[in-house]
Structures are given as C-alpha cells and as structure tokens.
Amino acid sequence: MGLLANIFTWWNGAGMTTRRFTKRHGREVGRDELGNLYYQHKDDPRRRWVIYNGPNDASRAPPQWQSWLRGQIDDVPEKSLPPRRSFEKPAMPNLSGTGETYRPAGSLSRGGKRAAATGDYQAWTPE
C-alpha cells in the first residue's frame, strides 16, 4: 500500500492527517521489533501514540509498549523495564480472521471430529 491508499483509508497505517499532525507535534521516542513507531507530543509528554507498520491493530503493539502508551510507565520500555527473560515468548498480534487462526481439534473448520471421551469422563444423567 502506498501513500495514496492511506489518503482514503485509516486501517492500513497512518492517514494523511495523522502524518501531518505527527510531523508537526510529534517526537519519535522508539521503535519495536515489528517496525511500529512510537511518538510523544513535543509540548505535552502525556500524549502518546503509535504509527503501526501495517494494519492498525492494537494487538500489534507489544505489551511493553502498551504500558508506555497507556502511561503506566514514564520512560520507554528499554529504560523502564527489565530485559525479556529467556523463557518469555515474543508477543504475537491477534490472528483471528487470518489463515493462522487457532482451530482446536473438533472445530468445524478441522472436520468437526474429536476424540472419543476417555474413561475419566462420566456423563451426567438426571435422576
């Protein structure tokens, strides 16, 4: 999608008005591993926003940056939070509506068949 598409759509990145506002009033404070850009207002540091690298979807901002956007931490995550631990998985965007949506065994999209109940299950019957 090019700049022309952003003039008429808001869901594929920043529109023309947001880009103009950001250029005039914003100060870039950081980027995340997905390529999203984070800004703070030059005059009022409590005003913060993100310009997504791709579709506008809040689940595409990692939890650390979500904390910064909401004012839960004052400084950017690299300075305010400890580094990610080795056992922590990276954040993933919401995959609903995509080809990578989680489909458990027994769901209609996987054939609608599930394993038979095992011996640890006893059906309820009314008395």
TrEMBL record:
Tell me the segments the record calls region Disordered: 75-127
Chain segments annotated as coiled-coil in the UniProt record: none
Q: Which InterPro entries match?
A: NDUFA12
* Cited Pfam families: NDUFA12
Please give the superkingdom of this protein's source: Bacteria
Signal peptide start-end? none
- State the name under which the record lists this protein: NADH dehydrogenase
Q: Which species is this record about?
A: Sphingomonas astaxanthinifaciens DSM 22298
